[in-house]
Amino acid sequence: MRANALRANVLLTNALWASARRVLVLRLALIAVGAPAALERSAPGGPTHLTAGALLLTFTLSYAAFRAGERLGPLVPRHRALLAWDMALVAPLLVVAGPALPLGLVCLCTPLLAGLLHDRRGAAGYAVAQAALVAALTAAKGGLPSLALPAHTLPSLALPALCLLAGAAGACLRDLLTRFDEASRTRAETAARLAATQAARTERDRLAREMHDSVSKTLHGLALAADALSRTADPAAVHHQARTVAEAARRAAAESRH
Questions:
Q1: pTM score
Q2: Fewer CB in 10 Å around end: N or C, the chain?
Q3: Is residue 249 within 8 Å of 222, Cβ to Cβ?
Q4: What gap in Å lies between CA 90 and CA 131, rounded to an integer?
Q5: What is the DSSP string of 155-168?
Q6: 33 within 8 A of 102, measured Cβ to Cβ
């Protein structure tokens, strides 16, 4: 039972990390789609190089995390602080490129990962922290004339609210996968119990048939011995046949009790 529980936990962890890797793929896609617009909005020279460096760094480290799934998968659920590095990874990109669409949606991946890989408390903590960070960056960007937000930027409270919703969505998805895993485990245990019950019933039926056949053979031998006894005139032979009949009767009675 303990081995089955450990195996089930490993399967659940693998399923959660597989979902987390899809979130990383989403981040990579958002960076790839939003990079041209972010580079186009940045000023020539140093700002463009800074934006390109932040994009390249975020993309490279996200891809490295995606490739190292087998090693990171068991570690991230046990160590909540590891996702703080993920938040720190996205922060420079938001500082340089701003929360403009679609690149601003990259910040939603951290609370979504927290919801998938941690419990609700951890997801809530990361969602609130990411929302506060995004709100602060949005306010800072809006307060600087040289870094004015483009027209297609989300409203100031929309992206922080989406961070909170992403954390809640990740937690709900984790609960769904956990319940599905528990239901699958319960179904497997029920199927195993039914199989064991069916095997025991089959074995009992087999033993009953064998006992019935044995009793039938014993009774048949008893009948043959009785016929021979009725045709024998020798007293010694009659005595021997009587003992044989008695032993066969006792054996048949013993087999019928079992």
A1: 0.65
A2: N
A3: yes
A4: 13
A5: PTTHHHHHHHHHHH
A6: yes
Residue carrying structure tokens 């024998």:
232
The closest alpha carbon to 38, from 22, 21, 23, 58, belongs to 58
Count of all residues that appear for the chain in the document: 258
CA angle 161, 167, 168 (to 5 degrees): 90
How far apart CA 196 and CA 4 sit, in angstroms, is 17
Residues 200, 201, 202, 203, CA torsion sign? positive
142 CB-near residues (< 8 Å, 6+ apart):
148, 149, 156
Tokens of 187: 């179904």
Chain CA centroid to CA 179, Å: 9
Block residue for tokens 């870094």 = 147
Beta-strand ranges (E) seen in 2-96 are none
Q: pLDDT in tens for each of the 258 residues of the chain? A: 444 544 556 677 778 888 888 888 998 998 888 888 778 777 777 778 888 888 888 888 888 888 876 677 667 767 777 788 888 878 877 777 766 677 778 888 889 988 888 878 888 888 898 888 888 887 776 543 333 344 444 556 788 888 899 999 998 988 888 888 888 888 888 888 888 889 888 888 888 787 777 767 776 776 676 666 666 666 776 667 667 766 766 666 666 555
99 Cβ partners below 8 Å, 6+ apart? 107, 134, 137, 138, 141, 149, 153, 154, 159
Task: Measure the CA–CA gap between 4 and 9, rounded to whole angstroms.
Answer: 9
DSSP assignment of 76-142: TTT-TTHHHHHHHHHHHHHHHH-SBTTGGGGGGHHHHHHHHHS-HHHHHHHHHHHHHHHHHHHHHHH
